[in-house]
Amino acid sequence: MKSRKVKLAVVEHPRTPRHVSIPMLRHMFSFDLMQVALTPAVPADIKMAAEESLINRLERLPQGERLSLANRASGRVAGVLLRDPELRVIRAALQNSRPTESEVIEALMRRDSPAALVAAVCHDTKWSPRREVRVALLRNEQTPLARALEFARSLPAALVREILQDSRLPAATKSCLLNDVEGHGNDPGRNTR
Asked: What are phi and psi of 50, to 5 degrees?
């Protein structure tokens, strides 16, 4: 049981009792936990425990390991890594195929979301065109004015007004967006998805 491979095989086996596999997770390496979370045969509660154990370790991991995890980890772990202070880790987590739109939105809606995350999502070709992500960006105070204008113009005027009511954008930015929406509100070329 001192062998790393044996521990991993025991935890990944679908017939291993929970009272054996869950305590073993605490003694596993980070990338072994990632493998447990991504293995299809592992029961869901064991996967969640492995993800939770890995998430609890993220602050203590060196940047290189966080970068590797951002590229390959489960969606939940990648979603937590979106709040990392390092831009490279954030970009890697955004490029990971496993995070869901709701995990990206959740990271954007947090009061402590890093400016690097907002900038990365604003310029990301995969995430920035999504309507709900644009709504989240219009609510984040760190969204640059130029991008906020672009996102506001892609949404119906009534929706933009509603978003700006509880947005954390600076008052001057909100005013500029409202003026722009009012000026383009009747524009027939405006996208009203």
From this structure: -65, -45
